[in-house]
Every structure is written in C-alpha cells, then in structure tokens.
Amino acid sequence: MTEDALQAKLENIGRLRRDGGSLRDYHAPRWDEPLIMEQSVPGERGIKVSQPEPGIVDEVGDPLSLIPEGSRREGLPDLPELSQYQVMRHYLRLSQETLGMDFGSDISEGTCTMKYSPKMHEEMVRYHKASDVHPWQDEETMQGLLEIVYETGEYLKSISGMDAISLQPGGGSHAVFTNACVMRKYFEEKGELDQRNEVIATIFSHPCDAATPKVAGFKVVTVMPDENGYPDLKAFKAAVSEKTVGCSITNPEDTGIYNPQIDKYVEILHDAGALAFTDQANANGILGIARARDAGFDACHFNLHKTFSSPHGCEGPATGAYLCSEELAPFLPVPVVTKAGDGGYHLDFERPRSIGRVRGFLGTWLGVIRAYAWIRSMGPDGLREVAEISVLNNNYMDRLLMGIRGVSRPYAEGHRRLDQVRYSLQTMKEETGVGCEDVHDRMVDFGIQSFWLSHHPWVVPEPFTPEPCETYSKADLDEWAAVIKKISDEAYSDPDFVKSAPHSSSATRLKRLEALEDPDQWAFTWRAYKRKVLGDTA
Amino acid sequence: MADTSFIHPYIPNSIPATKEAMLRELGMDSVEEIYAEIPERLRFRGRLDIPAPIVAERDLKRHVKGLLDRNTSCEDNLNFLGAGCWQHHVPSVVDEIINRAEFVSAYCGGNYSDLGKYQVRFEFNSQLAELLDLDGVANPIYDWGDVAGRSFRMAKRITGRSRVLVPGTMSPMRLAQARTLCQPEVMPTHIKIELVDYDQDSGRMDLADLRARMSDDVAAVYWENPGYLGFIETEGAQIAQVAHAGGALAIAGVDPITLGVLTPPGSLGADIAVGDVQPLGVHMHAGGGTSGFIAFRDDDPVFAQECPLELYTLLETETPGQYGVAEAMMERTSYGSRDEGKDWVGTASGLWTIAAAVYMSLMGPQGFREVGESCIARSHYAANRLSALPGLKVLFTPAFFKEFVVNFDGTGKTVSQVNKGLLEHSIFGGKDLSAEFPELGESAMYCVTEYHSQADVIRLESALKEVLS
After folding, report:
1. What is the largest CA-CA distance in chain A?
2. On the CB side of A258, how many CA atoms lie within 13 Å of its CA?
3. Complex ipTM value
4. How crowded is the C-beta side of B194, counted as CA atoms within 13 Å?
5. What pLDDT score does B1 carry?
6. Angular region, A161: left φ>0, alpha ψ -120 to 50, beta rest
7. A73 and B116 in contact by Cβ < 8 A?
8. Residue A241: is its pLDDT beyond 90?
9. Residues B100 and B234 grouped into a single domain
10. Same-domain status, B387 and B352
11. Which CATH number is correct for A125-376, 3.40.720.10, 3.40.50.2300, 3.40.640.10, 3.40.50.10800?
C-alpha cells in the first residue's frame, strides 16, 4: 500500500459508520447507580436461609447459646438490606457499566492477549461435575478432572518443549514466583545459596519478573534495553556472575521485538552455572513456531487466561502453567498430577524435594478445563494458525497506526514485531499537549476499551501497547486504528476536547485525586468514606 | 464433500481471501516474512504432539462433558468435606451476575470504561469491612494461605521483626503456603514461623505457651477463628492483647460466613484480618473457588502503606452526585515499583469478589445471622448423632461453628476405610486428618452447614452404622 493509499484509507475509516467509516456513535450505559449501601431499606430481605428443622431445634436448642460468652457478636453487621430484585438489578446495572471484552474491542489491552473465550467452555466449567467438586474428594471420584489436567499438561509440554509441569499457580505472576522458589530450592540443594543471591530481569518484562524473585529472597538486577530495544547483551553479560541464580526474562518483550540472540543470553547464564527462565505470558505469536526449551531455557510459564482462551473475569480466577526441565521437576509444588500404568490418574503429594506449596488445594482448574477444550478445538495446525494470524493482524494494524500523525514506534527500525507493539505518542504530546493518558480516556467514547499504556517505569515515553490477537477481524482492526486516527485529528485541532474526555462514558472525569495518596482522604470502604469524607462521627 | 481447509470459527482472518488481502497491503507473500525475525536455529520445525482438532462444537462438547461425567460431584453425592473449601448454598442471583458476559470477559480496563466493575469492588470491600469490623480492605488475591503468608511479611515490614507465632492447629496447607512466602531458613530475609501449643480438649491456643514464646523479635501473633479443626477460638481478644503487649501485631484468620454470629476480628483487637472469600457465594470448583482477602485497621496509615495488594478508594466526579473509584498508592505495588514494591500483585480472583459482593447484599444482616445459626445448629446436631455411635468420639467439643473432629480409634477402622465405605453409600465422609495431625489418631473432620438437612445427617448416621458394623 502506498503512503497516499494509506492516508486515504485512514481518512475513510476515520468517519462515523453512518458516513461509511468505521467509528461508532457510542454512548456507554450510565445508570447513575447509587452504592448498594445507600439503597438499604431496613427489614427487606434478599434471600432466606434454610433453617434447622424442629427435630434439630428440639435437640440443640438456641444455637446462639452454644457460642461461648465473648465470642458472640454483639448486634448485627451493618450490611445493606434489599429485596432480591433490587439487589439483582443493581449488579446487572453495574455489569452494563463494565465494557467487557465480549462487547468492546480489547485489542487495546496489549500484553494481555484478550482473545475470545468460547461460550461452550463456560457451560463446561459451570457444570456441577466441575463446579461443585470438593478438592479433597477421593481421587476415584475426580478421574475426569485429573485426566483433563494431566493431558493439558502433556500438550503444554509439547508446546514449550519442556519435560514437566505444574498447573497449580493461581496466575501468571504466581507461576513466575513458583519459578523463583524452584531456583531457590535447586541452589539450596547444591549448597550454593550463600553464594548465589541475584536474579536478572529486564525492564521490558512484566513487573512480576522482578518482584517475585525479590519475595523469594533474592536481589534483583534489572537490565535496560540497548538502542535496538533488546536487553543490552553487554550489560547482561556484565550482570551475570558466580552470584547469579538465574534470569526471569521475556521474548518477545512488551515491545513485540523478538530477540534473535536469546540463546546467547541463556548460554551466558549456563556458563556461570545459573538457570534460565522465560516468562511466556505472551506466547500467542510463537505457538508452534518457537519453543522455550529449544532456546535452552530450563523453565517457562504460560498464562492459561491469556494465550489459552480462559476469560479474564475482572482479573481472575486465573491459572499459571509452570513448566521445567527434567532436572528441575523434583522441585515442583505439590501436588503433581500423575498417570499410572493402569490408566488411572493420581495426585502425588509424596515429593520430598518439592518447594512445598504455592497455592491451596489443587489449583484453579477452571482455566485448565477451558485450555484443554481450546487446545483440542485447535489441534497442532490450529495453534500455528493462531500464531500466524496474530502476528499478521499485528503487522497489518501496525501499518495503519504508523500512518497516523503523532504515533511513533521506538526501537529496532526495519524489524517486524510479532504479537504486539509498544508505540509512543511523544510527538503528539510535544505538538499538541495531548498525551497517552488523555487518549486513553477518550477512546472509551467510541466503545473501545482504553488502551494499555505500559508497565512502570515508562521507558518508552507516552506509551501505548495494543495486541490484535487472532480473535479480531480485519474490520475490527480497521475500527481500532480509526479510533486512534480520529483522536489524533482531534488532538491536532481541539486538544482540550480530548483532554476533557470521556464525554460519553458511564462517568465523567474523576476529581479529588489527591485522596489517592492522602491517609486523611483515602477511603477503601464505605464506613471509612462516611467517617473521613462525609464527616460522619456516629 | 468435506472441507479440509482450516477455517476456524474463532479466527476470522483465517479465510484465505482476507489473509491474502492483508498480506498484499503489507507487501508480503507470506507470514513467514514476519517470522524471519526468528533465526532458523530457534525455529521449531517439528509438529506439536497434540491430537488432531475436534472441529465441531457438538463433538467437542460431547468429548469434554464425557470426561467431566467421570467425576462425581457434591450434588451427586452427599458431602461432608470442608477444611477450607466449604459447601454452602450459592444463591441463583450470584450465578446470574457472575456469569454476565461483561464481568466474565473484562480485564484491567480503565476507570471510566469499567466503572461498574470498580464500583462492585468498592462495595465488596465495604460490605466485608462491616463483617470484619475493620476500615481497610484490599482487593483479594489467590487464597487464604497466600494472604496469611503475605500478612506475616506485612508484619515484618511494619515491626522490623522476623518471628511469627501461629496456632499449632493452623491449617497445614495454609502453613505450607506461608512458609513458602516466608522463605527457608537459609535465606537472610527468612521469617521464622513457630507453632504455639493448643489445648487438647478445646483446640484453643495455649495462652501460657504463647506468653512464654513472646519476645521482642516477634512481629505478629496469628490465630484462626474458627480454628482449622472447627472449634471456636474464644481467646482472640487475649491473644491480641498478648501480641500488643509484646509490641507485635495481632493477625486474625477468619471464615467470613461466621461473622453474623461470631465476634468480628476488629472488635477483638486484630490489626489485620485475612481469610477466604469462597464461602460467600462461590462454588468450590475443586478448590479453584478460593480467593484470599486482607483487611486492616486504617487509623494508622502504615497498614495501608505496607499492604501488598491493590487498594481502591471512592472518589467523586465532575458530575455532582456521581461516584468514581480509583486505585490508591499505586507506587506501593509491584505494578508501580517492580521489585521495590510490596511483594507482588497479579491476576488472581476478581470474579469471586463480585460473587461475594452480591452474596453479602442478598444476605444482609439477618441472612448472616440466620446462616450462622443454621450452621451451628445443624453441625451440633450432627455431632450429637455421631458421638452416640459406638466407638466414635467427637473432639474439641466445647464450641464449634460448622466443622467438628470425629475420632474413629474406638471402631478399629481407619478413616480411609470408613470413607471408602461411605463412598459406597454415595457419601463423601469427613476430611482425613490422620496425616496432618497424627496426634489425633484416626480422626476426620466433618463439615455440616446450612446446606445439610436433618435427613442428610440421619442418612450419614445410618451409613456410618453399616460401614462400622
């Protein structure tokens, strides 16, 4: 596409749908819904509780009298009192004031891989043979679940090239923490923990890559990018020493740039006797294309709620899949799901070299059921198609975005990004005063989720990070780019209009933001708000 | 006839015509031109060892449902397992709300686009605060064991001390999670967790042993109410006093469904309370329904400042009378400051806090009173019936909420044998404690809630008679 054709296309899509463009004349639901605590009517009931039968009452008497003095609550908790319809309607209205991925376009949420979560999977996780199972039931009574967990583990092993897996971590960051504990145990056994106490992370990897090794007790050394956006190899080499435990790095990083020398980094670590872990929360662009083990990594993880289709549920429940080499397998958290010679599945708790527990019970298997169904719906070719279309979508949208005034793409000029891109609005900010946070707030006026900027610290100035995974159609990509195009035009013609956004969302601009840092004003609960802000002394 | 090309219903741009049009606009012949960024030596050229796809939804559903049908659920069987994951009634309205596509499919959207989600979070925090009698509630994370460990780390940061005293009856699973977070002894930043003796008759913390263990290196004393073994810990106020007298924090671990009838931790002097959201309207999901909360005093900002989880505050907007919600002190978290933040935050259990918000609103004060009364009445009734069976003895009898320990030593049978026998009667017997607490002999912990009818208890009693005969 020529530059002229590109500009013509952007002009075309940057108009309202009724004028032949891609933009929606959208307004978010605005219910003006009071807090549930403000709607209470004393005496109303939302639900009645099953009361003990007369035979029970006759035998045990007043249950409150069975509670020892001093342990019985005085008075009742000050909870709202509403009838059932009023409670339901309140929360339904609040659901409408939430722009879930099923409605908006979560291309915006880069690094999160917001893909379609098939509805059939939801039916399965809500089926009572999944949802109403107790974790301590006899293994014989949960063979179906155990098989799903075991087989999903086998698939993920193949996708990563690793030898062993735990599906216990309760999220991606939790899996990265699990890795820090595994590395800790590995060197504890070797008696090297008094010598080795440093983990290397890179600035473009997720904050958990730095934060969780710290919780495990390590010092964290963060490597900054070189002029091409790759973790600086010289700095990396300099950071590795006999004190190094391992690394917690990503490829591609948040920039979407694939690091072609990743195996060199691994080699440097191995030469120093350290371990190499890669955070694969964003594996969508490399499914069936490249594998962590093939680059020499000792361990990696996946987020089943990103790459493997589990919905995000307003930030969970989530499942982190932690995978490692044969050498690290003895350290996996308990329990581990195993398959016996007779075809039966078991929970193995007897693992003396294990790091112990990271999560209670067995893990968050809702995500595993969905990942299983999703992988089975894809097969090996389908997974590869997912990767190919996600990188194609990303490059297609990149072409559109790079034609928009004020948008730039730092680093690695001439190199294509894989699944996502970190852009900058620094030029727009300098030329109009409109920065990424202003655009972020304006986007929602078009029925599009606010874009993800960057984790902190911002290395790229005025950043934003879209990720148009395989879920989105060409029309969806055009629409997303059209929104940025439209806001760019506004920024250059009427910056105050952008800066006063949102204009058609569920609420107008927040105020009293100083409360976010002020102990006398912050109010994490209604009782605190009444006391601190409303001056209620009762 | 069969279409062998792979046009996947979840991948619109897999249509060849669209793919070609997009490639053409990029001036490419193939996606391989993008993948040229990956050197050949790092390319995977094999075929993933994954079965061929089941392409039709009907077939896939039949397959997955077929696997799940090999499970027996707690709807199929009568269940008496608890031990941190409890079967309570889940109101239909709760499922209606948390199955809304808006909530199921939302992630970390902005303050304006996701106003509703943030308002629910604030309402969850506000209602839980009333149950706990504490002013500060953070956004929950993985589960109770995780937040117990994090509260110990909080206590260390606040007091600068590195020893934590916990009850000898603490859930071994939660203890194991806390130990992972508190690091092995070989680490210089290790927090030492010590078990305090418990009274053999009541299960309560031995205050004399607690006092003996107190010293100026104790960061916190932690207790659980109800205790893991089901009993009501009546010494909470005393434990808090001992902790405070020694310059340590008082941390309570609580089951929030008890708080319509049991004294809340805030009233007992707890500085921090932790626990699990699961009993408040979340299905068990084989343990995946758990979600851990941290609540704290807010009369001293240090508790909020050292809390590792996200905190949301209520604000107003430019429209009079309109509320908004935003995250406070973001710099404090790992999202704000990476390894310089407090522990870490990440995707964990957001949907379950929505379930709990709806649950608390439906129940209201009377509902919490009723569910507490019902659990106590039904569990005591069950304990009475079981203790009348020959050879059975109920331990820690003075007072419990919904769980009680049954000792089978007098029957000559192990818990494992009893439970296998009960399974024949389509009953899941109590949690086997013989490995976790060998000093209790062959004992099992039974959980009886408002979910269980009198007939259910009688059915258990009859089945036990047969199994033990």
Report:
1. 87
2. 26
3. 0.98
4. 19
5. 45
6. left
7. no
8. yes
9. yes
10. no
11. 3.40.640.10
Instruction: State whether B111 and B150 are in the same domain.
Output: yes
Contact by Cβ (8 Å): B341, A305 = no
Is B11's CB within 8 Å of A79's CB?
no
Q: Which of B188, B357, B376 sits opposite A66 (nearest CB)?
A: B376
pLDDT tens digits, residue range B428-461?
999 999 999 999 999 999 999 999 999 999 999 9
- With beta carbons less than 8 A apart as the criterion, state whether A47 and A79 touch: no
Q: Are residues B242 and B100 in the same domain?
A: yes
User: Do B169 and B264 fall within a single domain?
Assistant: yes
Number of domains in chain B: 3
Top residue of B7, B14, B67 to mutate, by most chain A CBs within 10 Å, is B67
Return residues 297-336 of B near A (CB < 8 Å).
298, 301, 304, 311-319, 321-324, 326-330, 334-336
Are B156 and B249 members of one domain?
yes
The pLDDT assigned to B5 comes to 60
Helix (H, G, I), strand (E, B) or coil at B35: helix
DSSP code at position B409: G
pLDDT in tens, A109-126: 999 999 999 999 999 999
Residue in A52, A188, A210 closest to B378 by CB = A52
Contact A472 B354 (CB under 8 A): no
Strands (E), A318-402: 320-324, 336-339, 345-348
- Whole domain around residue B188: which residue ranges? 92-313+345-359
Q: Is the pLDDT of residue B398 over 90?
A: no
A133/B74 Cβ within 8 A: yes
Over range B274-303, report the average pLDDT.
98
CATH number at residue B291: 3.40.640.10
Q: Does B185 touch chain A (CB under 8 A)?
A: no
Domain termination residue (choose one: B302, B331, B359): B359
Query: Is residue B446 domain-resident?
Result: yes
Tell if the CB–CB gap between B338 and A258 is shorter than 8 Å: no
B331: in domain: no
The verdict on B130 and B158 lying in the same domain is yes
Please name the member of B106, B289, B348 whose beta carbon is closest to the beta carbon of A101: B106
Residue B326 lies in a domain: no
pLDDT at B6: 64
Res A258: pLDDT: 95
pTM higher than 0.95:
yes
Task: Say whether B377 and A382 touch across the interface (CB within 8 A).
Answer: no
For residue A280 the two structure tokens come to 């694969």
Q: Please, are residues B292 and B275 in contact by the beta-carbon 8 Å criterion?
A: yes
Q: What would the pLDDT profile of B242-254 be if each residue is shown by its tens digit?
A: 999 999 999 999 9
A262-312 tens-digit pLDDT: 999 999 999 999 999 999 999 999 999 999 999 999 999 999 999 999 999
A183: left (phi over 0), alpha (psi -120 to 50) or beta: alpha
Clarify whether residues B132 and B157 are in a common domain.
Answer: yes
Residue A512: CB atoms within 10 A of its CB come to 16
Q: Indicate the domain borders of chain A.
A: 31-48+80-96, 125-376, 514-538
Determine whether the interchain pair B107/A366 forms a contact, defined as Cβ–Cβ distance below 8 Å: no
Of A277, A336, A283, A286, nearest to A309 by C-alpha is A283
Per-residue model confidence as pLDDT tens digits over A385-417 = 999 999 999 999 999 999 999 999 999 999 999
Listed in order, strand segments (DSSP E) in A367-448 are 423-424
Instruction: Say what percent of chain B tops pLDDT 70.
Output: 99
Q: Is residue B3 part of a domain?
A: no
The tens digit of pLDDT for each residue in B214-267 reads: 999 999 999 999 999 999 999 999 999 999 999 999 999 999 999 999 999 999
Question: How far, in Å, are A362, A367, A495, B106, B349 from residue A312 at the CA level?
Answer: 20, 10, 34, 6, 9
Q: Do A87 and B362 touch (CB under 8 A)?
A: yes
